[in-house]
């Protein structure tokens, strides 16, 4: 048998084997489509039942979504990763919710920011994105009812708390009803052909700080200009010869900017946490998988902070974050932003909060919500 005949036989065998598998894939796709539409009809029925019982005010329930995603992760046997499965089911839930009403999500814009990426990660691509000029505007849009929810950065693993978000939480009537944890990769975006042709670097102040050492090594004498957001920096860099921006992948794609250098953040595990702001509380999701955020203060006397922490220790409640901020009304007085494990309705957390209310000069529970599902 000639080499050509062997080759033809090999190709025929390959095509026959592929045909069997592709037939299976086509059949599975048909089943998936049918199941997805069945799920969508069930979601519609949930909305109809809520409407009949006068409970249609909030179609998005973060605690229910967290329950579904955690159950799916527990059931997942691969080969798809838990992260991939979680992304897929978020998109399914997002599409189903949009059949009732697409959720309007306010975030720090313009399009292409990490806040947009966090919003899409949490609410899916079926949500209606509403970019805002400032974090203040994010709060205002949700408070006024122009947006269903807002997404605001609250802390970064490298640079710490986002002060403006903390200050606004002090005065808002909104509740924290969710959180998003986003891995941050910073890229140097520019149309300049090489580093020696870069004349200035635009970015948000936090991003400049997150890439401080890289900039010192590679662009030590190039001016660094702080702007309102990474996406705004990308917009400006796209319009100015020699200008560069530090921003993420979304900004690079949206503003068609080449990545001259990738992943230039100084800390390899650079991560930002965002809070989801709404006009309602989230109920308990899964025992041990919720978090409560609060603000507390007490006159600045010896042992004052210890007085506020004792109720948590006595109730066996773990603090996961403690951040101080100057109080606006009195010089050298402080308020403390605290995150604790557990939902405010859990007996141990409720006991701690009840005792804290008796001790604190000021106490505001910002909300209880599911811990971010990755």
Question: Describe it for me?
Answer:
The chain has 12 helices and 15 strands. It is an alpha/beta fold. β3 and β4 form a beta hairpin. The longest helix is centred in the first third of the chain and has 50 residues. The protein starts with a helix and ends with a strand. The chain has 4 domains: 58 residues, Chorismate Mutase Domain, subunit A; 88 residues, Periplasmic binding protein-like II (D-Maltodextrin-Binding Protein, domain 2, 3-Layer(aba) Sandwich), CATH 3.40.190; 75 residues, Periplasmic binding protein-like II (D-Maltodextrin-Binding Protein, domain 2, 3-Layer(aba) Sandwich), CATH 3.40.190.10; 85 residues, 2-Layer Sandwich (Alpha-Beta Plaits), CATH 3.30.70.260. Helix content is 44%, strand content 24%. The strands form 3 sheets. Strands 1, 2, 3, 4, 5 and 11 form a 6-stranded mixed beta sheet that branches. It holds the Pfam family ACT. It is found in: Cytoplasm. Catalyzes the Claisen rearrangement of chorismate to prephenate and the decarboxylation/dehydration of prephenate to phenylpyruvate. Its EC number is 4.2.1.51, 5.4.99.5.
